[in-house]
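User: I'm writing a tutorial on reading structure tokens. Could you give me a worked example: one chain, its sequence, then its tokens, then a sentence or two explaining what the tokens reveal?
Assistant: Sure. Here is the example chain.
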Amino acid sequence: MDNVKKKRKFSFRKLVYNDRYLIVCSIIAAIIIWVVTSMNLSPETTKKITVPVSVDFSDTLAEQLGIDYYGNKDLTVEVTISCKKYLAKDIDETKINASLQTSNVTSTGYLSVPIEVSPVDDTFKIVSHFPTTAQGYYDVAQQQTLPLELNYTNESFAADGYVVGDVAINQSMVIVKGPRTYMSNVKRVVADIALENGLTESQRIDLQPRAVDENGNAVNYVSVDIPEGENFVATIPILKVQNLKPSVSFVSGPENALSFLDVEYSVNSIQVGALESSDLKVLNLGNISFAELNVGENKFEFETNKISGIKVLDGTDKIVVTVTVPDEYATKDISIYRRDIKPELKNYNVDVTGISSNTVRIVANENVIDTIDKSSLVLALAPMDGEDAITEKTTVCKLSISVNTQGNSWVIGTYTVNVNVTPKEK
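And here are its predicted structure tokens:
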């Protein structure tokens, strides 16, 4: 058909005789030839690189003998390399391996061990390195655990009217590591503390423990092991000197205890050191339960070293508290049985299988005691000390007993019950 154009065929002959195509091809070929020639004929150059030296005892006799290296852990070697000039800028310490030839270590003591240097690829050559050897101390590794002691550079840093409380260290024992020969010289681990004088507030100090010999000198090659991310901290309480009257709290009974009980203390006051911020008015010795109060005189001893937050300064080691229940109070025994205990728990059925005592002793004023009988008692179950709640695993509960009557009254003694606890059907 005349109106259909014929497709043009590719002609290599026409392309060869086309000046524009020839110019482009010539330029590309020239560039390729220039690059290849430059790479092959590029001048050689040298470069010095500082490389860290690794110490690895894996698969060596030293590892089997338990020998380790003690000395400068930041060993470096200056390596001179030879390479094509255009490659020099890309070669750094990551392209070179440098390590101690630990396979040469077969005994303990001060040794000079060769340093081995090699390239990671063949794009350059190692010309030389310095030093060629490294001296260090080699010995069998040992460790031991010692208490951390504090060494105060000035003892009288508390202001007048203040004293230093019991210092708390977050880690009182430390692990010391080092070569066997030198570890025998370690006698103590100490941390120096330097504080300003005239302190009235507690201090928190970061500690730098160090192993010392019997003369207090640091022991070479021995270090204190401090796990990564942890540190040693001492909290030094600065306590204000105060004279406080002793006091006790009464629990599990009438709230107005001091209105009808006679309470006497073996000392009128006690000198203590306490944090100024605590703003103490009296020294609370602890609790006295009405369950331990019978008619007449009752004595209780409190050891002062068990009172938290204070430091006793006058040598008082215990305080005797005498609590007298007046003569107008009397006791009465009331019989109870398992069937009298009707526990109500939301999610459990409770079957009482035993009771520690079938007699409950109460104390009450003589004016009302004759009106108190079993119907006056409120019986309930409570978890044993140290338990959060009554569950299927509970086998023993406390029996909580209160007296529902006018006037002051309470129950003497502690009572428990054996139970069988099962889930309620939904």
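What the tokens reveal: The CA atoms of residues 245 and 268 lie 6 Å apart. Residues 19-41 form the longest helix (23 residues).
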